[in-house]
Amino acid sequence: MEKNKLKTVIFDLDGVVTDSAKYHYLAWKELADELKIPFDEEYNEKLKGVSRMESLELILENGQACDKYTPEEKEELAFRKNENYKELIKQITPEDILPGILPFLKELKEADIRIALASVSKNAPFIVHQLEIEDYFDYIADAASVPNAKPFPDIFLAARDEFGFDSSECVGVEDAKTGIEAIHRAGMKAVGVGTPDQMTEADLLITTDQLSLSGVLEAFQMR
Ligand code: B16
Ligand code: MG
Q1: Is residue 69 predicted with pLDDT exceeding 90?
Q2: pLDDT the model gives residue 200
Q3: Average pLDDT over residues 168-173
Q4: Could you name the CATH architecture of 8-19+94-220?
Q5: How close is the Cα of 219 to the center of ligand 1, in Å?
Q6: How large is the angle between the packed helices 52-62 and 21-34, nearest 10 degrees?
Q7: Average pLDDT value for the chain
Q8: For the segment 10-56, what is each residue's pLDDT rounded down to a tens digit?
Q9: Secondary structure (DSSP) of 161-198
Q10: Which residue's alpha carbon is nearest to atom 6 within ligand 1?
Q11: Of 4, 9, 116, 193, which has the fewest Cβ atoms less than 10 A away?
Q12: Among 11, 23, 138, 3, CA closest to 81
């Protein structure tokens, strides 16, 4: 197999394609306030790329409240947060695509490089629809059918296997520490576009408006 050729770029959604992370924060904040649990933007960093139920556990942990609720009550709390989140993301429009993402997607399409989405968010298809970028994606991984969330590599491997590529031919783009770890565990190179202190393990640390095909090819010595 011809290695070192870029065949697919696998994008995370929240914090990479659009800033839906801010809506996750607002929705969790409302719940945390209601439960009288301290929660701020700094603590919210821990939730990026983390699944819904694990995020709830982290929030409850911050208020020493993990044992306060039954599994059914926790399901109900997560459900309420998600209902609130779904209301908030209705306001997302194509104007919310982060700078540089659209030109990068166009560049990849023109170069016939597959484009995949590896978001652990069950709301990802709705957000992609709101952003009107469905046509760019050759594959959107189904978060619900992936056994293990990030930092496990499952969702990135699902995208790779969809096309039958080798990990060395795939590049992942992430804004969360757990996501960078998931990309590496999938054996792929990782582009980090998140806050620099969370991106220490990224192979290439840039901002979304610096994303370019030539930049990725050069950084990873790919063709
Ligand atoms: P949902 P990503 C992740 O999306 C978010 O970063 C994380 O904050 C969220 O808890 C998770 O999705 C689950 O989302 O509750 O909508 O299913 O970064 O993998 O695109
Ligand atoms: Mg993310």
Answers
A1: yes
A2: 93
A3: 97
A4: 3-Layer(aba) Sandwich (3.40)
A5: 28
A6: 50
A7: 94
A8: 999 999 999 998 999 999 999 999 999 999 999 998 898 889 999 99
A9: HHHT--GGGEEEEESSHHHHHHHHHTT-EEEE-S-GGG
A10: 49
A11: 4
A12: 23
What's the pLDDT score for residue 2? 56
Q: Is-catalytic flag, 14?
A: yes
Query: Which CATH number is associated with domain 21-91?
Result: 1.10.150.240
Q: How far apart are CA 169 and CA 8, in angstroms?
A: 7
Query: Ligand 1: distance of its center to the CA of 209 in Å?
Result: 22
pTM here? 0.92
**What atom in ligand 1 is closest to the CA of residue 122?**
17
Residues of the chain with CATH 3.40.50.1000: 8-19+94-220
Sequential DSSP letters for 150-162: TTSSHHHHHHHHH
Q: What is the pLDDT of residue 38?
A: 95
Distance CA 171, CA 168 (A): 8
Mean pLDDT of 130-140: 97
Band (79; pLDDT cuts 50, 70, 90): very high
CA 211 to chain centre: 16
Residues in the chain: 223
